[in-house]
Amino acid sequence: MSRIKHALRLIFLSPRQFLYVRRMKRSGLFDRKFYLEVNPLIHWIFRFFPERHYVLFGESAGLYPNPDFSPKAYLKHNPDIRSGGMAPFDHYLRAGRHEQRVTRDLPSDGGGLSIPLPKLRGAEANPADYAVVVHIYYHDLWEEFEARLKMLDFDFDLFVSITYKGDETEALAEQIREAWPRSRVVPMPNHGRDIFPFLHLINAGLLSGYKAVCKFHTKKSPHRQDGDTWRRHLIDGILPEAGTRALLERFVAEPDAAFWVADGQHYNDPQWWGSNLNRTTELLQRIEVPVDKDRLSFPAGSIYWLKPQIVTLLRGLQLGTENFDLELGQTDGTVAHAIERVLGVMTDAMGMHILQTSQLAALPAPEPAAPGPSFVSAFYLPQFHPTPENDAWWGKGFTEWMAATRAQPNFVGHAHPVLPSDLGFYDLRVTETLGQQAELARAAGIDAFCVYHYWFDGRRILETPIDRLMERPDIAFPFYLCWANESWRRNWDGMSGEILLEQSYAPGFAASLAESLVPYFNDPRYQRPDGMRPRFVIYRPEDMPDPAAAVAEMRETWRRLGVGEVELGAVLFHIEGESPVEADLFDFWVEMPPHGLVGMDDYLFGGPDGNRMQAGVMPAFSGLIYDYDAVRRNSQSARYMSKLPAHTIAGIMPSWDNTARRGRDAHMAYGANPVSFERWLREMLKTRIPHAYRGELMINAWNEWAEKAMLEPTQQYGSANLDVLRRNL
Fold first, then answer.
1. pLDDT tens, position by position, 462-482
2. Among 707, 695, 585, 680, which residue's Cα sits nearest to residue 650?
3. Backbone φ and ψ of 153, nearest 5°
4. Could you tell me which Pfam families the record lists for this protein (predicted)?
């Protein structure tokens, strides 16, 4: 009988109720999608008529008609309405919105007392493979969470952030530390929901290096009918009472999975943008990730497992307290809500996906990983110490650091200046620095540095680091040399502008150069990748007057001096110089992205189609911006690969941006970050390395800081580029 009465009430509204529903629809302030999503227990018939359900039952039950209106709070903060007998939301539609009345509860002091933001320092090493991060706002839920943590069948490091509420927080923190001695417990101000405390741990480097990180929090969601049930479903999905280890290992083994969420928590529809599109776009400009407003796929609920690639990009956002909204009980539209969508766009940008628990359980066995390269090199720039020449040309004390630190952004979100972290602003006259660099490179899977060698008819420049290395046999620094045979010019591109130091190719230059290299070849740290021949590379062979004659003279000199055969290579620039070079003149060629990989359709600014940038470009900028992802795709296209000499070492770059050298005239690859670099590398291991010369890989570069092409740790991303290599090589 009650069902019949409800049905009749739904059909036959009173005149007053009918007009109320009409006002709701006309106002556009009743959010149907929101109302149905947060109230899943509504009978299926009423889901076709949510406005009527709200008028008949929802308002009296305290349900929200949109994320920012609480009928109970409206009555509490506006007591004059009670005497009139008008429904709270109806009053708001008629008058309250024009009078700017309070529509929801403001946080009380007990919601999070103000405390200074704790200063955190990263750990030296992670004791476990996995991290579990718990944020506690509702202190009474810790007991429920602790019971679940004790059930887990794998080892993990525990991080707990607690919204500070005075003595009760101090007591709970001490309780957790006693029960979990290895845990890191961090009281936090009530700012940025569960998101900012999580980012604070990431920014400190505490969550770097794990195979996967689990994040959950004390979610009650008072605006939902099923807040407690929903929370338990979300946690049960990613931390089941039994079998978590097996699912977690499968998640880690799936290279294309970025997130693991409970069933029903992968939202895949642009309708879920809500009021978060603009903020999501602004946030992602910080890491050069564009947003497609017609697509949205993201992990909902802020409870999930995530891969280290996501941790990397979240760190790259460099968000602090100043970037988050004041806590006013919002249910949408804040930076914390935008971060949910950010995670989804990041996942798309990586070419990865979101897995729900049932999908994870049904995955087939992973495919075997592609074999790694046989030998990995990285170009190495020695211009990190002062020289008399640079003092004269650029000012006293000039080094590459001076250029790098002066760089200014050319578009909104452009990360400049880029600053070092682990190795600091080093001076390569200190030979121990080379040893530290080699230690980082070795741990990441790099076999050797290809060090630029500046020789101008017997005159040397930037020779101090490598010559001092020769005096220190105790420093393990594997290297081989690349003769950077361009003339030095004031505009840094080697092709135009005032000549500072000319490469004249005087008669006999080839023999003189070859003879000068013998002491380096004889050093035991000098690399012989094939196990027999020392390797030497020429940067611009087409600039030599007679490349074939020069190469023959070099080879003959080395034989005469007892060196024997040298594995001689050249950089492939895809442009003709003054002297054409036959493909078989060298033992191998080396790709050097971005050279030869940027097509006319790939320009986002400065190309034939004008300005296609989503981010705003500075008015004075007159350089070129192209798409990093397009370069990645081009490097694997059949058309491009068909033009390569058969004996070519495959090349890759983590980034490219010479703003530090050319300012408003710079050329740069938009969309370069450690995760897009990893996507390119993973693809190359399958498509390019099997066909490369000796299965080798060359990275451009180890430390080109003024061209933003470096693997060394940065303040923005930490050691992320090295971590990419470590995971994949």
1. 999 999 999 999 999 999 999
2. 695
3. -105, 30
4. Glyco_tran_WbsX (PF14307), RgpF (PF05045)
